[in-house]
Amino acid sequence: MKIKLLKRIVIKIFSILFIPLKNFIPKSNIVILGTSSRYSYKDNTRYLIEYLNLKGMENLYWVTDSREIEEHLDQLGIRYIGWKSPLKMIWISLRAKVVIDSGTKFFNPLGVLNNCKSIKLTTLHGNGPKANFSRFHPPSNSKIAIQQIQDHYAFDYVNYPSKYSAIEVARRCHLLPNEKIISLGYPRCDQYFDSNYVKVSYEKKATTKSLYPGCTKTTKVILYTPTWRPYDYCFPLDLMPGLDLFEFNSWLVENNYVFFYTVHSAHAPLEVPLNLDRIRFIDGSGEPLFDINQFMLEVDFLLNDYSTTSTDFAILNRPQVFFMPDYDYYKVEKGFVEDYRNILPGAEIKSYDQFLQLLTNIEKNPVAYTKKYNAKRIELLNKYYDMENSESCEQFYCFINSILFNQIK
Predict the structure, then answer these.
(1) What is the value of pTM for the model shown?
(2) 274 and 172 in contact (C-beta within 8 Å)?
């Protein structure tokens, strides 16, 4: 406790010392990008910085303290800053004109970016029917909602990948004014519109083989992406009637499947299952270069609950299945923009037997299954991802240039 208190005092002192500097040091055309963790290289900002680098944009910096990420960036010729070199990090930050994140917090060491001359932008992390706060939060979560709204307001621009979400989510849930709202798509989704790249990635299965070396050309991949809850919760599959993980693992071996699952870093379940031969936990903290959107190119089936991965995966037009054992409680505690069950681009299962039967039927005729839910898939995308945003990276490139060269304020 004493160490934490001392750390807070030191940070507060240095933050006060930087007050005159952060407002008067001239800004350069420096762009800083980062994501939710300095030990992860993923999400929209990963794809964006690589695109900006290919376009020849100079003075790009990624925020990281991971040696593995630094080595990867060295190979790409991309610069980085972090707490390993604090003076360099502060100097770059003081002169930065644009700061970009993929979540609700931007990189702000010692508060030096709390100034009106540095433009803060978030691509945001996901978009779908689940509500993110505001009027959908119950009174017990009002403090969380207020804090999250304040975090959004700290940005100059907040990105929503559809006109519908710009109204129903940005304005009505997040309570943002029009001048803060932009709609430029998600850089991570650009790859899904390149049919040849999608085909090659699926056949190559590079990420799958790195996670499960036993993968063959005929191995099918299931990805399970349960999202976080604003309450303590067990691993959702533990609530699936009839499910025994050892029995499921045997079924996966017999039918040549691999089942991967993730958990949300914001609030993980109380426990996660141990790894079995064909049931594998993807631990983001131990895989700094893992990116779920790249991995989804290799996935045959997505098992989901309320995660916005459903929207991204819908672009690929592959089978989705939903298991939502706490739907009613989640609806009360977290909420939805609209009736979630009415817009699911796939079947909802209630038991293990039903899950296996559905997987068997899908494998026999995946095209028939996707056709069955195609209307729902199109409705989901029409609302939560404008399909004309197939070149999101280029749109961001133009928008960032307009900031750097003072074409917009």
Answers:
(1) 0.92
(2) no
